[in-house]
Structures are given as C-alpha cells and as structure tokens.
Amino acid sequence: MKSSVVDSALAFQEDLVQGLGHEVLYSNLLADIIKESGSREGFIAAHPPPILHEKSISIRAATKAVNLVTNAVRFEKGENWVQLSLKKNTDVLGVVGLLEPAEKSLDTLVALLQPLLNCVQVLITMEQSDLVQRIATEQIKNQQQSLLAAVDAASEGVWEWNIATDEVNFSESWLQNFGWEPGEIRAIGQLRDIYHHDDRERVAQTLQEHLDGKTLKFEAEHRMRRKDGSYASVIGRGRVVAWDLQRHPLRFVGTNTDLSQQKKIQRDLMEVQKGMIESAKFSALGVMAAGVAHEINNPLAIIQAYSEVLQNYENLNPVKLEKSRQAILRSVDRIARIVRGLRKVARDGDGDPFEIIKLKTLLEDILSFSQERILHRGISFQTKFSDEIILRCQPVQMSQVILNMLNNSIDAVEGQTHPWVLFEAQNKEDQVVLRFFDSGPPIPEKVRAQIFEPFFTTKQVGKGTGLGLSISRAIIQDHGGRFYLSPDSKVTCFVMELPRAALQATA
Predict the structure, then answer these.
(1) Residue from 446, 448, 452 nearest 466 by CA
(2) pLDDT tens for residues 402-437?
(3) Which of 283, 288, 341, 276 lies closest to 473, judged by CA?
C-alpha cells in the first residue's frame, strides 16, 4: 500500500507541474487519501494565513455535504471522525478529516499517508503564499495610490514618465491646474515644449543629472505654459522610482507646484517693504529739514550780501572784487553739496549695484545737510576711523542706515548738559566694524529685547515711525552683515559688522 501512496504523490507533482487548478488538485489528493486510508468520507481544510488575522478555517475539498453559509462539514451524530493536523514548524496550516479510517492507530495512519499529507501541505503553502503576495501587492498599490493622492493634493498635481516608452501620464489635479485635457500631452518631449524657452535647457540638464545618478532627486524652479497661453511659475520635483537590472532608470514620478500666488504675495510684500523703507527714509530726512533750511540760508545770505557789494563794482578795486566773487562761488558750492547729499540719500537705491566706496565719502554726504542740526543742539560729534576705511555696499542704502543711527543718537542725547556722539570704524580680520556710541541714557533690558521689532519705538508720538532700526538691520543683513546692540558697552553702542571689501576704493 505504501508504494501506491508514493505513486499518488508523484502523480500530484506531475499534475502540479502541468498547471492543474488548485481545486482539482485538492479533489484528487482527497480521493487518494480516502482510498489509501480506507475511510468512508473525508475533507481538507486550510487555516487562513496570519496576515488575515482570522480564525475560521476554509474547506478546500470534501466528500460530505458542505454548509456554504458556515463553510463547514456537516457531522452526523455518532460518526467517528479522525482529524490529522498539517503543521509547518509550530504553525498549523490545515487539517485533513477522515470518517472511520480502516487504520485505527493515529501514528500508523499518519505514517501511511505522510507523502500525501506532505502534498496537501505543499498545496496549502503555495495557495497561502499566492494569497499573501496578492494581499501585499494590493496593500502596496493602495499605499501608493494614497501617497500619490496626498502628494497630488499637497502639490498642484503628479505626473509619471515611463522612460522606456517615453510616455507621460498626469493626475487629474495636474490637468485641472494647468488647463490641459487628458491625452493632449503624451510624451516627455511635449511636456518640455510647454516649458518656457529660457528655462528648457537648464531644466533638462538638471533632470539628466538625476537620471545619471548624480543627484538624489530632481528639483528645478521654472516657468510652464498653461493651455490658455499664460505662464505659471512652478517648482518641479521628482525622482526615479524603478530601474532595470543594469540600473538604467525605467520610471520617474514628479510633481509640479504652482508658485504664481506665492510669487504674487512675495512681490506684494516687497512693495510694502519698499514703501516702509521709503517712509522711514523720508521721516529721517524730515527730521533734518529745519537744519537743511538753515544750512542753505547761511550761504544764501552770503551770496545776497556780496551781490549787493558787487552792485557798485565800478568803485571796487580788483582785490575786493575777487574776494566777493570767491565768497559767492564758495556759497554756491556749499548749497550744491547740500542738495547733492540730499539727492543721494533721498532717491530709491534698492536696485543699485554694490560699489566700493570710502566710508568718509558716505559720511560727508550725510553731514552736508545734517551738520547744522548737530551744531544747533550743541552736540559734540566725533569720528574715529581711518580715511582709507572702505565698504562694499549699496551707497544709498548704507547712507540711510548711517542717517538713521545719527538721528537716533541726536534724539537720545537731546537736553543733556554735555551731549556727545561718537562714530568709529575699524577693519577687523575679514570684517569692517562700525560703532555708534552716544551719551544718552542706558537702554533698559526689556526695551533691548524689542528694539529691533518693526513699529516699536520709545519716542513720543509723532517723533518716530518705529521702523528705523528694523529697516536698518534688514539692510545690513542684505549686505551679509550683522546689526546689534552691544551687551558689553557701558554706554549705548550699536554695532554693524559688514564683510570687508577686498578691493581698494576709488571714491
């Protein structure tokens, strides 16, 4: 009998190789087991794989009537059933049930049927492996779909490129946001055609670097044409997600996020910031207005006086005539320098190129129209720096910073018996360090924490905008530097650190 069991097992292997369906294989195995065991009836049941987290068994083959609702064999009262467990290590894969087998010893029965039981175990294992693989594949597919949906929602759409066929596909969000219909763009070349012509070469190079494995991901900001002809500023991101055995890229998944609204907000913010800077600038210039009027009135009075003298030029000797002429020229030059200084600081210099300029030149332009305010208040204004100190800066922007600091120091020392302001500068390794000291009262700790915040001011209403220091710090930071209130100085000291210019000044 043992040889017939082996023959049945060999026949199962041949049927398996030929690709017979699992249902037929189960039925053939059950028929062989019933025959070899001398049983009246029988069934084969499989336990579900652990991935399903289920306890109910599944009938794979049965000679008894099967209850299709409960998926169970009907056991009649008084029937003597023997159940043989099919195990793999400690896991129970299934069970073979036999009704009143001829062999009563369970161990002998198992030994007799072992080749066929092994075949059942193989079939259940194969079936469960297929099921686990299908479940895992489905889970991965669902996860990918969920991920793509999330990315699609977070960006402005997802697109996929089959590199082997050159075909591209787009998510619904991508099509909606850029106005294209399904099927209008089918190949990667057509996608590149809707990139702005000034951006195509750069984007193509960045993408190729990623395809060549030189970068971990693709990322490029560029302009892309919508179907209506308008261009959207977008940032494209993506990466290769599949390769062949030779590590050649097969599949690429990317996103395009429309930056148009973000760019508009940035432009609006820049306009607001520009307006704030201009407001603060003219506020600082307004503070100097009275002094400027006095600065101009003095040379005008001199011009008027010498003009009256020149009315009687016939009676003047050449020496007096030349003296009058020189006095008028000096006064005109004085007025011209005041106006020139005002024009330099007052104009919009945000888009100016960076220049190499002497610090002395910047300060002279500012003092040309602010000297009178300083002298009128009896302030001792001192400078301490070499004439050769140079800055690499936007002169108009840097002039505004110095003017703001000068105005703040003048306000801080107002009313003191012996007011003074000191402006010093020095080269320090790779930096130029500028410091404004004044004799004003110390700044309280709680004010120090807020002093650079926009619209924060300790001045009386109408005397300050609260923008001077915050804008000055922003300008210094745009110049690659730092602007802070010194924590170590015994008097008020604002410090500006700027990158040191490598070239010699020409101004």
Answers:
(1) 452
(2) 888 888 888 888 888 899 999 999 998 889 999 999
(3) 276
Nearest Cα neighbor of 53 from 138, 135, 169 is 135
Query: Which pLDDT score is estimated for 51?
Result: 52
Give me the residue label for tokens 């040379």.
Answer: 299
Other residues' Cβ atoms within 10 Å of the Cβ of residue 259:
18
Q: Are 163 and 250 in contact (CB under 8 A)?
A: yes
Cα 22 to its chain centre, rounded Å, is 54
**Pairing status of strand 390-393 against strand 91-99:** unpaired
Report the residue count for the chain.
Answer: 507
Using alpha carbons, list the distances in angstroms from residue 33 to 359, 396, 440: 103, 99, 106
Contact status, residue 137 vs residue 159, Cβ threshold 8 Å: no
The C-alpha atoms of residue 158 and residue 53 are separated, in whole angstroms, by 35
The residues with which 235 forms a beta bridge, in sequence order, are 221, 257
Q: How far, in Å, CA of 209 to CA of 218, rounded?
A: 8
Distance CA 309, CA 315 (A): 10
- Phi/psi for 484 (5° steps) reads -155, 165
Q: Which residues contact 66 (CB under 8 A, 6 or more apart)?
A: 43, 59, 72, 73, 74
Residue 71: Cβ within 10 Å count: 12
Q: Which residue has the tokens 């402006």?
A: 423
Nearest to 119 by CA among 35, 39, 29, 45: 29
Percent of the chain scored above 70 by pLDDT? Answer: 73
* β strands within 152-206, DSSP E: 158-162, 167-170
